[in-house]
Amino acid sequence: MGKDVIVACDFSSAEATFEFLDKFTDVKPFVKIGMELYYAEGPSIVREIKKRGHKIFLDLKLHDIPNTVKKSMAVLSRLDVDMTNLHAAGTVDMMKAALEGLTREDGTRPILIAVTQLTSTSEERMQNELLINASINDTIVKYAQNAKAAGLDGVVCSPLEAGMVKAACGTEFMTVTPGVRFADGEVGDQVRVTTPAKAKEIGSDYIVVGRPITAAADPVAAYKRCVEEFVG
Ligand code: C5P
Predict the structure, then answer these.
(1) What gap in Å lies between CA 115 and CA 43, rounded to an integer?
(2) Over the stretch 128-151, which tens digit does the pLDDT of each residue have?
(3) Terminus of the chain with fewer CB atoms < 10 Å: N or C?
(4) Ligand 1, residues 180, 208, 230: which to mutate, most atoms within 8 A of Cβ?
């Protein structure tokens, strides 16, 4: 399994995205397109970035009834994305349906990963508002096990949870981890952060990095530093 750095393109327009991507001339980073950019520009943004030679993680976090998710995943698969995701809270049946929808006629499909509990959800709110009567860590592990049982490739989680997920689901089960900061960089609104080197040590397979690259004075140098620390 290839370790890689995924750059979160959290821009609100195609123009801003291309202005950023144009800086990369000798390397083509794996990029993440999230809801903001996708809802602003639609599927054409995926096709255009793909045409420029980038791998794409389409981060739309689907969560609906199995039939709707299956049909939607079939549409996303035809966009030729490399990775996409859904909420494990949609149940094992929904995740299985998603995989079916995603699988192309020739048997190939994008990597499919699940969100367990969003890192913005505290244990207190999960218990008091969602009435989930377990610890947040047990919930994360159980949702990861459900994702594995459904046949998914891995989960999105904090790098600090990656070890726990690997212990429960095996080292082959992928962990895709945001919340990465350089040791000498700004933390911003992220709370539980770690460095690219530490994420590598813990066993993340992909790190998702936004502002430490997008807001850097020299984004290409910041990207290369990330790759150097994480991939080596
Ligand atoms: O700018 P920054 O490096 O914080 O960007 C991290 C990216 O990862 C953002 O696109 C954010 O939405 C995403 N993400 C996250 N935490 C999660 C899931 C996704 O930061 N639990």
Answers:
(1) 22
(2) 999 999 999 999 999 999 999 999
(3) C
(4) 208
